[in-house]
Fold Aminoglycoside phosphotransferase.
Amino acid sequence: MIAAWAARHWPGGPVARPEATAMAPDGSTRFFVRLRAAGRQLVAMHGPDNPAEARAWLHLAGVLAAGGLPAPKVWAAEERAGLFLMDDLGQADLHGAALALAGDADALAKLYEPVLAMLARLQAVGAAGLDVSYCFDGAELSPEFLLRREAGYFMEWFVEAACGLRERPAGLAEELALVAERAGRAEPRGLVHRDFQSRNIVLGPCGPGLVDFQGARLGPAQYDLASLLHDPYVDLPWPLRRRLLGRYLDLRRDVGPFDAEAFVEGWPFVCLSRLMQALGAYGFLCGRRKKPFFAAHGRPALNSLRRLLAEPPLAMLPALGQLARRLPDDPGPLLAALAGEDSR
């Protein structure tokens, strides 16, 4: 059905049924297909289950394009049906490229350079033209949102559902609220993609491109960089993470006014919140959506969370540190079991 719809709306006029190749959707319930016809390659997306999400995606595609950011051009859209036909930004992604260069810090730094530059521009100009009424999952990453949907998500789906820990250290609720408060009020603010990790950054002939941006909203500018540098799919070496953080700060200063001191002050709290979100997501995707692929990424995410909690200023959170130490060193088998898969 999706290929036939795309054929009727092909740029330049209808074409015979295009050659179609299904694309892996990762954690999404949407369906993607790569199409080839009349010397052109495009991508069609079908997401009929969430009209508000489809509406947000279309609005944000326009906002990003208007800001000179590399979002796919939309050739045809039927918003109510959740059908979109767009440019294909490329078949490679940052995830695959980074894994191929594992162990070579200089090569990885070079690979990440244009991605950091793209992110700096996203934070500088991305919010211009944004109408937050289109943000289907909330207009802003506020303290209340982060406490409920990141810290709460982590506790419900990772700590309890996956790891089976129900006893909570004294003071944990207060520390989770503090992290959400510090992360949710961190400055400076900007447009947050909210899933700016290696599998959502396409590498094409024209450089890196943005996909899966339908959840974007306003929030702390640190959030997307935290998603990129503390990305469990890649698990960059810590010295390289620090190096790329410094490089991002330089690039961000180059594209407009920027309070680097405020950014650095909020950085560890936003990083911790993002890692809790990732671990909660792995529990949800394994437990609710039965996708065992995500189980293997629990260990690097937990290792990063523990390391953050062992260093200032987050070492001042003893209850969270105690909880992290109680969690299994490798939660992968528990996550796989949650998905109904035997990990042996």
Remarks:
- Residues 2-87 form a domain with the Phosphorylase Kinase; domain 1 fold (CATH 3.30.200.20).
- The chain has a mean pLDDT of 96.
- Residues 37 and 305 are 46 Å apart (CA to CA).
